[in-house]
Amino acid sequence: MMMYGCGSVRLRVRLLTGLLVLCGILQARGAEFKEAQQRFLAGDYARAVTLAQKTLADRPDDEDWQLLLSDALLATGRYPEAQTAITNALARNRWSVRLCWQAREVFLGNGQTEAAKELPDRIIGMVSRNPRDFNDAASLVVFGRAVLQTGADPKRVLDNVFDAARKADPKLRDVYLASGGLALDKHDFALAAKKFEEGLKQLPDDPDLNCGLSQAYAPSDTALMLASLETALKHNSNHVACLLLLVDHAIDAEDYEESSNLLNRVEAVNPWQPDAWAYRAVLAKLQNQPEAEQTARQKALKFWPDNPRVDYLIGLKLSQQYRFEEGSAHQRQALRFSPDYMPAKAQLAQDLLRLGAEVEGWKLAEEVQKQDAYDVEAYNLSLLHDTMAKFATLTNRNFILRISRHEAEVYGARVLDLLERARSNLCAKYGMELQQPTIVEVFPEQKDFAVRTFGMPGNPGYLGVCFGKVITANSPAAQPGHAINWEAVLWHEFCHVVTLQMTHNKMPRWLSEGISVYEERQANPAWGEHMNPDYRRMALGDELTPVSELSGAFLAPRSALHLQFAYYESSLVVEFLVQQFGLNQLQAVLYDLGEGVEINTAIEKHTVTMQKLEEDFAAFARQKAEQLAPGLDWTKPGPEGPSKSATNFYSLTELAVKSLEDKEFEAAKTPLQELIKLYPSQTGAESAWAMLAAAHRGLGETNAERHVLIRLADQDGEALEAYRRLMELGAGAKDWPAVSLNAQRYLAVDPLVALPYRFLAQACERTGETDTALSAYRATLALEPPDPAELHFKLARLLHQAGSPEARRQVLQALEEAPRYREALRLLLEIENSNGTEPSGT
Question: Which residue of 189, 446, 476, 610 has the smallest Cβ count within 10 Å?
């Protein structure tokens, strides 16, 4: 018995020792795999391949290593080798759903689309037959991805499959990559950001999750996008998806040299990355290099000859550069490769809508929405289509105007009149003959404007956008509380119509915006951007952007002020070019751009070298800045307090503001008059002109107030309060031309209030401008005033004087509102007597 007991102990010791050895082996193997995986995540793909191949030589059935090997081979562009590896792995582990999903990715990378299509059904079948064998988190993620390929409801997959996987294993990175990736695919960027942020709480250093987060931020917040990219690249400097996102960003900034350098980095990692070659094709297209473009596209399609993503990506980037004709052609090619490729179909719909091909565009948008009900962008477009179906359409020979029915009735004719004046002026000036009507769409809701323009709500800083043949704009109703001159906006946008069509949409953003802002000032000195204290400081500091880099200033401005300065600086470049070299040379640059000549080459051909131009322009801009109120001291107050200088801009302004607040109107006049003497071009509600007018009004000095307001109104295109007060003062003085002028100015900012129409009608009645008075009264009625009877009566009186039979209907409407309206009754009798009939119904 004792011997038996000793033997039993020895057996137990041997078993325990064996278990300890086995645990040690498993721990060592786990550590080896973790090291290799970290190598992979850090971008050391070659080392990951070496370690995986070495391990699989001894343990060919190890699923984790099989997956890592194929991942690393794909990452380095070794697509045929990846296919061999995954095929061998599946032969050994045919029941692995993870290997099946990986095989799908590998087969697609090698153009084996039919083989790839079979794998989601295979995965679903295996899980359905033996669900208990596949209830781990990793298998659930694969199952969710597979059912999505068969058209499953994305929300149910997110809630019931991916969320279950997350609860089962909160540290599994694939859960967050799958959830966030799904949200990105559906343009639900807020949800995508949430999912990637959840993952980063568990795995803060994961470069793939940081890259996903940057993609979620890309459409809305460039600064956060770049910060996430920086974090990702800190952990993996070879992260191809991050580098490609930077390429995308650099192309938008028209920094083609940086784009090429980044693509070189991608090529060093993966010489056959399809997206990278697609971007190279885009760069070649934008630089008018057709042979390089064709070569790059062919290389992008080397391993997958009918890959729809290649043409989709090329087309997308061309359209983002406003090259919609070429972009739509690539989307059509992508759909020839794969008729159900939703990204291409959705982008083609947007391209067509921006080209004015609305029937086909809306039809495609509807198809996308029906086939993918969860896609946020497609859903937004479907709602917008329903909204726009209720719009009015006003047309003439040159324009198709879509605008809400209410706004069409109030000021639709004014919009068409403004557009006709812009067309007559700008087409003649630039020698451009437009071949088709321009479509203009005006939206009373900012969100609808954003969806029509960008595909998604947001981007509140934009007032209007021109695609070349189509203009979209916010109406004054979309900007409550903000005085925006809609006439200046539409003039600006129509100028884009001219220059974009002259260049076949092949012009840099800075030049396009610069010409439009410049032409605003030419059309009306009170419009557009002008030198002001902020711009003066920036121009004299180090914030002028070199001309060759100006488009980048629009992409990621440090603030709203910096964005506005980019517009102003661009317009100064145009002003400089016209002054120094003449409008004809600017036109020659535009025509060269249309032929595909690169911008710097075109400018140098018709002016001077870019280096000299940048030097001369910087001097021009600084001189402009120095000429702004040179007699003022522009020193900003420091910690020691306000400047003691008697001519300090900030001290004089502060003194004037305080005096007005204390109702010391006489005292306020002294600093304000000094400011006006030294800075007469100042505009804005807080300008010296506006404050001096308030001081005069406080003192009852009406004539002086009017004189000051006239100066302000002449140079400020958005001075609503000045226009209103001048209408009042003009009416009191019976200065009807002044009343009419300021009513028109008011309506150029806010055409949706009755006050200016009443003043305009009154003034035009007095000056005999019957048609304008009639239009003003009709607009006032459309605004549903509290006293419609009086307006109907006034309309009837004017119409009767003009001999219009409509007078009778208007006077009857007045009596319908106010049956005892004596003047209306007398007018009705007069109308009936003039017609030789007896009045009826009275």
Answer: 610
Cβ atoms within 10 Å of 264's Cβ, excluding its own: 11
DSSP state, residue 545: P
Cβ atoms within 10 Å, residue 456: 18
Q: Facing residues of 464 across strands?
A: 473
With H, G, I as helix, E, B as strand and everything else as coil, classify residue 466: strand
* Mean pLDDT for the chain overall: 93
Mean pLDDT of the 378-396 span: 94
Helix axis angle, 560-581 relative to 533-540, nearest 10°?
Answer: 70
Encode 803-838: b = buried (16+ Cβ within 10 Å), e = exposed. ebeebbebbbbbbebbeebebbbebbeebbeeeeee
How far, in Å, CA of 545 to CA of 566, rounded?
A: 8
Furthest-apart CA atoms within the chain: distance in Å:
141
Length of the chain: 842
Helices (H) and strands (E) in the chain, counts: 42, 5
Q: Quote the pTM value.
A: 0.90
For the domain that residue 82 is a member of, what is the CATH number?
1.25.40.10
- Domains in the chain, number: 2
H-assigned helices in 595-701: 599-606, 610-626, 649-661, 665-678, 688-698
- Parent domain of 102: 42-134
What percent of the chain lies above the pLDDT cut of 90? Answer: 88
Average pLDDT (703-716) is 97
Task: Return phi, psi of residue 465, to 5°.
Answer: -145, 140
Among 88, 105, 134, residue at a domain's last position: 134
**Residue 38 pLDDT class (50, 70, 90 cuts):** very high
Closest to 282 (Cα-Cα) out of 310, 303, 240: 310
Report the relative pairing of strands 399-403 and 438-443 from DSSP bridges. Answer: parallel
Q: Is the pLDDT of residue 7 over 80?
A: no
pLDDT digits 0-9 by tens, 203-226: 999 999 999 999 999 998 889 999
Measured CA to CA in angstroms, residue 642 lies from 634, 637, 658, 676 at distances of 12, 5, 14, 20
> For 350-371, what is the HEC assignment?
HHHHHHCCHHHHHHHHHHHHHH
Contact present, 740 and 760 (Cβ < 8 Å): yes
Q: With CA atoms as reference, report the closest residue to 121 among 150, 92, 162.
A: 150
Q: What letters, b where the CB count within 10 A reaches 16 and e where it falls short, cover 70-81?
A: bbbbbbbbbbeb
Residue 783 lies in a domain: no
Strand 438-443's sheet: what is its strand order? 392-395, 399-403, 438-443, 470-474, 464-466
Do the domain assignments include residue 436? Answer: yes
Task: Give the type of residue at 209.
Answer: L
The answer as to whether 481 is a domain residue is yes
3-class DSSP string for 730-776 = HHHCCCHHHHHHHHHHHHCCCCCCHHHHHHHHHHHHHHCCHHHHHHH
- Predicted pLDDT at 3: 42
295, pLDDT greater than 80: yes
User: Please, what is the Cα angle at 156 between 151 and 158, to 5 degrees?
Assistant: 100
In this prediction, residue 31 carries a pLDDT of 82
Residues 479 and 492: their CA atoms lie apart, in Å, by 18
The C-alpha atoms of residue 486 and residue 475 are separated, in whole angstroms, by 7
Q: Find how far residue 28's CA is from the centre of its chain.
A: 52
Query: What pLDDT, in 10s, does the model give residues 572-615?
Result: 999 999 999 999 999 999 999 999 999 999 999 999 999 999 99
Indicate which CATH number applies to the domain containing 589: 1.10.390.10
CB 73 within 8 A of CB 49: yes
Domain boundary among 67, 100, 134: 134
Asked if pLDDT for residue 13 goes beyond 60, the answer is no
Tell me whether residue 221 is in a domain: no
Q: What are the tens digits of pLDDT across the range 513-567? A: 999 999 999 999 999 999 999 999 999 998 999 999 999 898 878 899 999 999 9
CB 90 within 8 A of CB 119: no
Could you give the percent of the chain with pLDDT greater than 70? Answer: 96
